[in-house]
Amino acid sequence: MFGIFGKKKKAPQTSQALLSDALSDLLHDQQVKDKRKRRRRLGLPGWLDRRLLIGLAIIFVLVIADAVRRENQEFSAVVTNFGGTVTAQPPDGHAAPVKIKQKLVDRTNVVTAAGSWVDLAFPDGSKVALDGNTDFQVKLLEYHRGGQWRSRSFFLKSGRIFARIGQNFGKESELRVYTPGCVAAARGTRFSVQAEASGGARTVCGDGVVEVKGFNGDRMFVRGSGECSATPGTSPTRPVVAPSSDLAAFRHASMNEIIRTDPWYKQAELTITQTLDAPLTILGIGKCSWAVGAADFARRTNAQEALRKIRVNLEGDANYPLWVNPATLEELQIKEEGGVEKILKNFDGAGIESYRSDGRRFVITVRARDRHRTRYELTQAVIRKSKEQD
């Protein structure tokens, strides 16, 4: 039967239904009160609901992912331009012509033919340019998330390279160029290194300061417009004024491009990952993490174990060489399964810091790849932590 307005009358609710509705309302009110209490305990404002928290969490994860992506770029050099015939051979592949935007990783060999050249760029704006007739190896590209420093090392077998280090490189960072005759190390400067396959090496400093270290441990500091030479086993020569023809190369456009300061968002992202270094490393997230659990303690342990292997190989020798190439250790004639590179990769720069010997005794110093680049010393008798050099 229809009422006077043509609508069907609702059937009256049973007492059971009324009780159920009342309980539902009571439960809902209690949930609202509990949510408010949780917010008050966490110090969260009342308008902050679960959806907003989820949104903020997603944004945070995206920021971390982008920061890790930027960090991963630190572990390769990128080909930005080249001319003539230039080939690159990765550690597990065959030599092939380079391509624009090609990434060169650790232990990649690059060779330029006569009249050829290639420019390699890095995320901080630094650049390395190879001249013609150059045989060059990307030895080790390191970025430490926790310490926020970079360590780049190259082996110039022969030929000439030009390097420009930008202001974003980092004051605790260092770039090393190993040669058959010496090691050139620098921060925030422009310089060139020329090496002969026979062993001679020559370093020219365009501006700033370059440290040139001989294989016997002696070193020399070369300042702007100066040059220095070295041969295997000898001390570097005293710096003299470089010829104007060599200094003119630093006026080339590629050596004078404007390097802008890192944008604020990049600085913010890298600061966040630096703060979260421990959990990210333990979880093995990003190339800054060697593996699960590979924290600073493991890196120091690996460096000491590598020194132990060197000492085992030298046990029983009556005479020791007076000097050693820190990038190859070939004078020590170490026999290690997988090659000496397997030992050197555990040291900062993939090489030893110094070697000193009088023929009967020796002292080898290295730095681990931990946050503080802890320095260790090896003698015939002990492996110990060493104080910083003057």
Descriptive key words:
single chain, 390 residues, alpha+beta, 17-stranded mixed beta sheet, 4-stranded antiparallel beta sheet, 7 helices, 25% helix, elongated
Q: How would you sum up this structure, described in words?
A:
The protein is an alpha+beta fold. It is 25% helix and 29% strand. The protein contains 7 helices and 21 strands. It has helices at residues 15-42, 50-73, 244-248, 264-275, 277-282, 296-314, 341-344, and strands at residues 77-83, 86-89, 96-97, 103-104, 108-112, 117-121, 127-130, 134-144, 149-164, 174-178, 182-186, 190-195, 201-207, 209-214, 219-223, 226-230, 240-241, 354-357, 362-367, 375-378, 383-385. It has a 17-stranded mixed beta sheet that branches. Strands 18-19-20-21 form a 4-stranded antiparallel beta sheet, covered by helices on one side. Helix 2 (50-73) packs across helix 4 (264-275). Residues 1-5 have low confidence and may be disordered.
Biggest sheet layout = 17 strands, mixed
Overall average pLDDT: 87
How many helix segments? 7
The parts where pLDDT drops under 50 for at least 5 residues are 1-5
Class computed from helices, strands and strand pairing: alpha+beta
Strand content: 25-35%
Output the radius of gyration: 30 Å
Number of strands: 21
SSE string, helix = H, strand = E?
HHEEEEEEEEEEEEEEEEEHHHHHEEEE
Secondary structure: helix percent: 25-40%
Shape: elongated
End-to-end C-alpha gap: 106 Å
* Oligomeric grouping of the chains: single chain
